[in-house]
Amino acid sequence: MKIRFQVVAIDAAELEPVSTFWAGVLDGTVDVDDDWHMVMDRDGVPRIGVQLAPNHVPPDWPDGEVQQQLHLDLWVDDLAAAHEEVMALGARLLRAAPDLDAEEGWQVYADPAGHPFCLCWHRSLA
What is the mean pLDDT of residues 111-124? Predict the structure, then answer.
């Protein structure tokens, strides 16, 4: 089996804010259809599909009753810069790291539709 590309598909009640958010994170673009937006990275490779789900209920993770449905881990070289960028794009910080000076760690965020993702770091990989 030859796989041409792999995407993560996520549900959202409103496509535009979520696809625009992820295009901003990936420094990419959005290919728009009526009930599906394909987010391409800066090289034009499809990475994230956003599917219209009018009744989508955002997860209340990490502590709520509606558990996460999926989450992305994004490993970054500069957490402070990545934090500022995703916040400017519309993310919400759900859980801050207890020690930003630790050798490795993560912070939990949500995209505009409430999908959780983590900004992770490992200083020895930077």
Answer: 89
| Same domain membership, residue 119 and residue 107 | yes
Pick from 56, 85, 102: which residue ends a domain?
56
* Residue 22 scores a pLDDT above 90: yes
CATH label of the domain that carries residue 45: 3.30.720
- 46 & 79 share domain: no
Cα–Cα distances (Å) from 87 to 4, 44, 94, in that order, read 32, 24, 11
CA R_g for the chain: 15
The mean pLDDT value for 40-55 works out to 94
29-32/8-12 β-pairing: unpaired
CB atoms within 10 A of CB 80: 9
Cα–Cα distances (Å) from 62 to 53, 58, 65, 124, in that order, read 22, 12, 9, 27
Handedness of CA 9, 15, 18, 21 (dihedral sign): positive
pTM for this predicted structure: 0.76
Query: Pairing mode, if any, of strands 46-52 and 116-122?
Result: unpaired
